[in-house]
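A quick aside before the break. I want you to see a complete sequence-to-structure record at least once, exactly as it would be stored in a machine-readable document. Don't worry about memorizing anything.
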Amino acid sequence: MKKKTIASIISAITAAAIATAFVIIHKPLPKPEPLSLRPKIHLNDSLSNALSDLPETEGIDKKVRAYMRQWHLKGASLAIMRNDSLLYAKGYGWADEGESEEMQPSHILRMASVSKLITATGIMVLQDRDSLSIKDTVFGPSGILNDSLFNSLIKDKNYYKITVEHLLRHQGGFYRDPLFSSNDVRNQMQLDHTPVKEDFYKLVLRHNLRFMPGESQRYSNFGYLLLSEIIEKVSGRPYEEFICEEVLKPAGCYDMHIGGSYYSDRFPNEARYYTHEGEGKFVEEFNGSGVMVERCYGGNNIPLLSGAGAWCGSPAEIARLVASIDGRPEVEDIISADAVAQMTEYFDKETYSLGWNDTAPEKGWSRTGTLSGTTALVKYFPDGECWIMITNTSTWRGPGQARYTDALFKQCRELYGDKLPKRNLFE
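That is the input. The structure line, written in tokens, reads:
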């Protein structure tokens, strides 16, 4: 009896050990976040205008305020980084004029298509872990998205040639980019509900491609929605969860979130958005209610944009992310040197870089973003200086606003760059 009991215990222990080994082999724990990657402070808990309210930077302040008056901007937030050190972070104007709340560098704002840089970084993290390759095909029997939903929709076999890299470079060839047309999609598909991502898949993928994958390019938010889907499929986790835990936190970004569509959805430290009269202030609510709403609050389904344009964050935390993917030694990167090289490789002005809009060596790297109620520009200059501005007001120039912000950056650098304090607000 005693021998049987001992044998049973040994058998149970052995079984448990095997089970544990199975779990370890097939469900590896996430890689621990290296301590060297963690900033000593959470940026948005520590930054204030007072830290950058300096006599030597008054020239920058005057230029930014003049720019805001010119374009009728309610508020703006600016961060300046040099060689992976945050030198300057300041808010201007109003975060919420109605509440008399001044903009601070700790306020978060919708960053629109700057979100694509985050998504591309997530793809590179997965590639570094050998979970995928940007050369992998997206659709078809051997594709990443080989679920029955996608397989049943696709009739044009040229879809099977689309790779992850094609999506990153806007070279997929999709016939339409409908993410900002919820009501049109609802009516066209005769839906009795607000379109969800599966409806957009059904609408787009059943059509033939406009061009062969890789042979041309056409800017595609839809392509980055698919990249968000790929991240979920490969990681086995919701897109936002994976990005927060495996990209943003390791980079030292603790206050970035997928934003909401309405003023009531805002985060406690999120700025209010304002729409310029010139872009058409009121539109029909995206859910088909027929109610007319301010374009920046209910005109678009923001969470649906996911990795194409839904993230909110502060320019200072975006700077921290850039410092973690730029290949410089001062801040340890969260992706490999090969991945940095792939993201920033430049071919020609007709080819998008991975996540970045452009990485021309003589001009530097740039990433723009535009939504109703916000404009954003990340500009990383060849000398290692990075300027980031987000506004809480859109202009009638739409995506074209970025070139005026770029001109502001260049002028401020020429006039006042040598007056920036030598310090590091990351520490």
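Two observations worth writing down. The first strand starts at residue 75 and ends at 82. The CA atoms of residues 83 and 384 lie 5 Å apart. We'll return to this after the break.
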